[in-house]
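User: hey, got a sec? need DNA-damage-inducible protein J folded
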Amino acid sequence: MDTPTVTNIPINTYVNDKADSILEKFGMTTTTAIYHFLTSIIETGKLPVQVGMKQKIREAQIDEIVRLVPIGKPIDTKEELLEWLNEDW
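Assistant: Yep! Here you go:
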């Protein structure tokens, strides 16, 4: 077995504390969760599905914003919304 490497990762205190409390319910430590996360990446060559879902949720939220925000001109795509958001006022 390889000698463990110590890795320091700066993590927002809120995220760290919330994750610790959830992981504790599963009987896991943050170290164990990170180990399983990295092992999954190695085994599959991809990010775990749950991580990939976050981007899909963001995209869905942007789609909803495009549909709901009245801005004075039609916006039909995410690209048009981002272009409008970046316009000079």
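Quick note: The first helix runs from residue 13 to 25. Let me know if you need anything else on DNA-damage-inducible protein J.
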